[in-house]
Amino acid sequence: MPQLIASVEGVEIKHVYLQKDRTTLGRSADNDLVLDNLVVSGHHCAFELRGLADVFIEDLGSTNGTYINGKMVKRQKLNDGEVVAIGNFRIQYLAESAQPSGFSETTAMRLDALGVPVGTRGVFQVLNGSSAGLEMPVVKAVTTFGKPGVSVVAVSHRRDGYYVAHLDGATEPTLNGQSIGTHPMLLSDGDVLELASTKMVFLLKQ
Q1: Looking at residue 31, what is its pLDDT?
Q2: Which among 70, 72, 157, 190 counts the fewest CB atoms within 10 Å?
Q3: How far is CA 119 from the centre of its chain?
Q4: pLDDT tens, residue by residue, 99-158
Q5: What does the DSSP 8-state code read for residue 10?
Q6: CA within 13 Å, CB half, 136
Q7: How many Å apart are CA 6 and CA 14, to the nearest integer?
Q8: Is-contact 192 127, C-beta < 8 A?
Q9: Which of 182, 198, 183 minimizes the C-alpha distance to 124?
Q10: What 3 state SS string does 84-147 have?
């Protein structure tokens, strides 16, 4: 069965199997694949399944466009392995039901190697300012923190742990004093994230 694998800065955030004749992608909650980011239009594009394996992508008049191989597309057939670009998001199309990367048994076993018990949840606790002590759980596949245009990070929850990546803004966030670049960084219990003027500690809780 064909599927779509969405990622941000190399970190997988969602995957959807194309089971219906028409699968929609956009920022609005009524889409089959929801990407909650301002670069994505409310109803950005659609994937149409024709026959058993032919899949066409159609831009739905989006504001920022839908791109394949650097070219804006309106409607075209997808080839196996092609990657659709929407802002910082990358959506890979796979014609067959190969198991998505990051969800294999081998990767799942890394939880034990990391010493992270199954069922553990990630939480950020604010360390300074008027919100000091406030706890913000990471409950979605990807959660964004920060102020758009200043500094925004994406925190992704994968089966092998939590990852943070710089998503937007001119001010680079830091993790334990180290700049967070384009490559996602694995979060550990007690790590301190500085986002503009806000400091938060990452905690793993049962």
Answers
A1: 92
A2: 70
A3: 21
A4: 333 333 323 333 333 444 556 788 899 898 877 888 888 877 777 777 777 888 888 887
A5: T
A6: 16
A7: 5
A8: yes
A9: 198
A10: EEECCEEEEEECCCCCCCCCCHHHHCHHHHHCCCCCCEEEEEECCCCCCCCEEEECCCEEEEEE
